[in-house]
Amino acid sequence: MDCAVNPVNIEKFLILPIAEGSRTVTEVLSKEGSFKILEVLSEDPLSLRQISRKTGLPFVDVENKIMALVESDLVERKSISSGLEEEKYIYGPSNRFIVFSSEDNTTVV
């Protein structure tokens, strides 16, 4: 693929050096249930309660894992409030690819 002809949207990638900086993302992904959450979110954006129901994970666990996934830029939170009621949120995948690179960016995995 010629990048001049088919430019790559760099914002679609979460590029992490293979070093301390990537530890947070790998720790979040290694937690039991995180992939299950990402799997159900790949179908449709959902609220915390809907995620809990679809995954069978306790609400508190879902809430903690979602916050970690949001902080790691793997999940996005969107507001769906109507203005009359309490603000509500739905969560969906951030539609980004994770790329690990050497600290000097000479090697990409």
Automatic annotation (TrEMBL):
- Protein's name in the database: Uncharacterized protein
Question: Which species is this UniProt entry from?
Answer: Methanococcoides burtonii (strain DSM 6242 / NBRC 107633 / OCM 468 / ACE-M)
